[in-house]
């Protein structure tokens, strides 16, 4: 089991693990790694809730679906797995237009298709606000690259440009329209599947999905690997 960094959310997760005891196996990474016969699968699930992770006035329904699926698919990238399929559960408010429900699923399907995956199914319920819960399954070819493999002397790399989603969020909260690039980074994030496999093939020792912020996620990687990370701004 991989150790987590500090923080109230992660203290809660640690308390849950202690309560579950030996019923928890292999937790703490971006994905669970499960062996089925000769195959090794990576499994993860990610929940997006209206009012917590997004607001409908900020994005189209299709972008909501894309963003939710991309967040889950990024967990597969974080162990250098190849996405196979996704399952999507929707909680939809009464009176929400039918075409919007389909558009959410179209966005999720487009994100899956962009990584080589398909939609396998899901669930649909009524709910007071929109929720999108995406489970993902991928294949691990060779060794999974987990958080706990970093070694003293390794370099710390990040893919893409940082700060775009935060800039978009700041603009929306100020009732302004965000810069087009920042908005794109928030609404249509790219799962770094190809980049992760490239890094694995060239000797990367540890990977993590950058979803909690650079410092928080570097701390998780360091805690799991029993090393320290030095970031020089």
Give a verbal description of the structure:
The protein is an alpha+beta fold and 233 residues long. It has helices at residues 8-20, 61-77, 98-114, 164-173, 180-187, 193-201, 214-225; strands spanning 32-36, 39-49, 82-92, 118-126, 131-139. A five-stranded mixed β-sheet has the order 1-2-5-3-4. It has a single domain (8-158, 191-225), classed as 60s Ribosomal Protein L30, Chain: A. The longest helix has 17 residues, at 61-77.
Quick recap:
The protein has 233 residues and is α+β, with helices and mostly antiparallel strands. The chain has 7 helices and 5 strands.
Brief descriptors of the model:
233 residues, alpha+beta, 60s Ribosomal Protein L30, Chain: A, five-stranded mixed beta sheet, 7 helices, 19% strand
Spatial extent as radius of gyration? 18 Å
Largest sheet: spatial strand order:
1-2-5-3-4
Summarize the biggest pleated sheet.
5 strands, mixed
Number of helices: 7
Q: Please give the share of residues in helix.
A: 25-40%
What is the average of the pLDDT values?
A: 91
The CATH architecture term is 2-Layer Sandwich
Percent of residues in beta strands: 15-25%
- What structural class is derived from the secondary structure elements? alpha+beta
Q: What is the fold named in CATH at topology level?
A: 60s Ribosomal Protein L30, Chain: A
**N-to-C terminal Cα separation, in Å?**
31 Å
Which runs of at least 5 residues are low in confidence (pLDDT < 50)? none
CATH class term: Alpha Beta
CATH superfamily: PurM-like, N-terminal domain
Number of strands: 5
């Amino acid at each position: 089991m991989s150790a987590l960094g500090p923080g109230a959310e992660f203290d809660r997760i640690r308390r849950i693990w202690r309560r579950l005891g030996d019923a928890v196996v292999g937790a703490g990474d971006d994905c669970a790694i499960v062996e089925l016969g000769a195959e090794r699968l990576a499994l993860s699930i990610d929940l997006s809730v209206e009012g917590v992770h997004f607001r409908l006035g900020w994005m189209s329904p299709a972008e909501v679906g894309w963003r939710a699926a991309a967040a889950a698919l990024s967990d597969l990238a974080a162990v250098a797995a190849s996405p196979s399929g996704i399952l999507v559960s929707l909680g939809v408010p009464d009176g929400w237009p039918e075409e919007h429900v389909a558009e959410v699923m179209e966005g999720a399907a487009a994100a899956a298709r962009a990584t080589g995956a398909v939609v396998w199914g899901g669930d649909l319920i009524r709910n007071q606000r929109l929720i999108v819960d995406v489970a993902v399954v991928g294949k691990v070819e060779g060794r999974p690259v987990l958080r706990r493999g970093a070694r003293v002397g390794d370099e710390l790399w990040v893919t893409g440009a940082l700060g775009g989603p935060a800039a978009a969020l700041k603009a929306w909260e100020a009732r302004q329209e965000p810069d087009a690039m920042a908005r794109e980074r928030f609404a249509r994030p790219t799962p770094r599947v190809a980049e992760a496999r490239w890094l694995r093939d060239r000797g990367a020792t540890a990977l993590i999905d950058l979803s909690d912020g650079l410092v928080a996620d570097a701390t998780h990687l360091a805690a799991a690997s029993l090393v320290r990370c030095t970031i020089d701004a």
